[in-house]
Amino acid sequence: MPLQTRSRNSAHALGGSIITSPYPTAQSVEDFRSNLAAVRERIAAACARVGRAPAEVRLLPVSKTVSEARIRLAYAAGCRELGENKVQEASRKAEAMADLTDLRWSVIGHLQTNKAKVVARFASEFQALDNLRGAEALDRRLQAEGRALDVLVQVNTSGETSKFGLPPDDVPGFVRELPAFSSLRVRGLMTLALLSADPARVRPCFILLRELRERVRQAAPAGIAMDELSMGMSGDFELAVEEGATVVRVGQAIFGARELPDSHYWPEAGSSSEQRS
């Protein structure tokens, strides 16, 4: 179900207008604890509706545009992994917070191959693999660093040309090529659903990814795991959990509303794909 408006709304100015948001901005450790608890309660309720255990779902807080100071508050509230869309922003934050030695970084946005060397240095996970050129670049850089990387294959389940990700029919063949890249630990699939307030339009994206995962899993090469389904963001993560998500990428419901549209954070994304994490 879509995110429900909570009593602690936030308001900010944008283009001369006052915008009221259902996503309260966390400015203290207690705020973060409250927001995290609320999201986890909703995950648990979604699990209960379909007979799943909440422990099956990993909450990945998305910290794009969030300052280092506020991330440190989130860390104090219990966050130990963070998702970022832009490689340079993520790398800068990871370097600045290197003292937090147990903080893991997941890159969840499109990767230009010339940024593979940056990802190979600091990331623990990459959720947007959708081409062999990127796989080769990452593998080469990871081998040079003496590291391995968990990766998820991004799938375009909505069919929107403005979105990155492989067409569903291309995924089985793509996965069969991945054992050639020994530094990539393939864990599963990721998608961005259609942005809509209508669950009947959003849910099919999640169903498609789940069913595709089962199909790919049956024919996956040795060493390829298809355990993870990363799907669902602030506006639709409960639907995703009901359809089998093992990872939900939640930003605004934890950190608060952003002032810029999501097209700013998802390169080349058009208005039809401005899904909110």
Describe the SSE topology.
Layout: E1 10-14, E2 17-21, H1 29-50, E3 58-61, H2 68-76, E4 81-84, H3 87-96, E5 104-107, H4 116-122, E6 125-129, H5 132-145, E7 149-154, H6 171-177, E8 184-190, H7 199-219, E9 228-230, H8 237-242, E10 247-250, H9 252-255
Parallel strand pairs: 3-10, 4-5, 5-6, 6-7, 7-8, 8-9
Antiparallel strand pairs: 1-2
Helix pairs in contact: 4-5, 6-7
Structure keywords:
disordered C terminus, TIM Barrel, alpha/beta, 6-stranded parallel beta sheet, globular, disordered N terminus, 277 residues
What do these coordinates show?
The protein has 277 residues and is of the alpha/beta class. The chain has a single domain (28-266), classed as Alanine racemase (TIM Barrel, Alpha-Beta Barrel), CATH 3.20.20. It contains nine helices and ten strands. The strands form three sheets. A six-stranded parallel beta sheet has the order 4-5-6-7-8-9. It has a two-stranded antiparallel sheet with strand order 1-2. The chain has a two-stranded parallel ribbon with strand order 3-10. Helix 4 (116-122) crosses helix 5. It is globular, with a radius of gyration of 18 Å.
